[in-house]
Amino acid sequence: MVQGKRCAPPPGLNPEGAPRREKDMNNETPENQGTPGPFPEAPASGSAQARLPRAAAWPRLAAIAAIAALTLSGWQLLTLHQKFAVLRAELGQQLARAKSANEADRLMAANAQEAARETLVKLGVLQNTVAQYQGQAAALQSLYQQLASTQDQRSLADIEQLLLDANQQAQLAGNVHAALIALELADNQLATLDRPQLYALRAAIRRDIGRLKALPAVDVVGISLELDDLAHKVDSLPFAYDGMHGAAVTAERIPAPKSPWERFGQEIWSGLRQLVQIQKVSTSAPPLLAPSQRYFFRENVKLRLLTARIALLQHDSASYQRDIRGAQRWIGRYCDTQAPATRAALGALDELARTPISVRLPDISDSLEAFRRYQMLHGGGTQ
Questions:
Q1: What is the pLDDT of residues 267-305, one digit of tens each?
Q2: Is the per-residue pLDDT at 2 higher than 60?
Q3: Overall pTM > 0.70
Q4: C-alpha torsion angle, residues 333, 337, 343, 346 (rounded to 10)
Q5: CA dihedral defined by 150, 153, 155, 161, rounded to 10 degrees?
Q6: Mean pLDDT for the chain?
Q7: Alpha carbon of residue 319 to chain centroid
């Protein structure tokens, strides 16, 4: 504290600051009154007596102001102390919260670092796994390419065999249907490969297929079935001589017997007539066949029909016509032409003889030549 001048004590206070007693103040002795006090009395003039109370009031006001200032300062200090205490408490709380937050942050940072390390380890494992998978994928891709190349080569080999079969069926056997089936199978296999380099080969196969489809159709299966049916009916065809003899016997009138002896005689005579028969045969009558020759006749007719079927499958028109006409002549000569079965067989043979079985086959070797050119250019592969 700054030390200043010591002020005079206010009225009613002793120099030490203690209030005066009224006894002391009221019962002043003349001796005390004569003794000069701390404040010497002014001259007893009128103006001096008027200024004396004013001079004495200023120290009191100063003291009151000082006390008020000290009180205000104390109150302000107390208020500041309380504010400082509150601020200190808030600051401590904030520091505590910041410390706990820092601890949590450090824990989270540690956890994050641990997670990052685990992630790096997992990433390394995943990278190794991906590398292994990539190696396996490359191996599988290589294996697939090898298998695809092998499969394509196998498909090309099958296509070549189909083209060879088509040419053999068309040129050697004359089987248009089989050749057409082989070409269509080869075209379907080329469609599954789907290679631009094979378009020229497919175009050649399509041209050969068009040539075969433009040919007139021959019902080989239907004709073959009809020949087989005629071969089965040969055994039931009646012979011409049996028909004539049966008609003559039925036309002869036999008188009815009158007595048992006559009936017995007629039976003996009928038996003798069956043992020996004499009949006049004109030049237009059919030849007589023995029972053994009849069997060979039927087998020869069946053989003629069988060779006609073979010629049909080979598209040999000359052999087919010769066998059909031969069977027709034999049946017309030795069988009863008046019988319905014989007439039906002769009509079927005549219709079969007029049916064309051979056509001029076109050359379908273009597809095979195109395939061989493709093999020469690409080395048998499909790249």
A1: 777 766 666 555 555 545 556 667 778 888 889 999 999
A2: no
A3: no
A4: 10
A5: -140
A6: 76
A7: 57
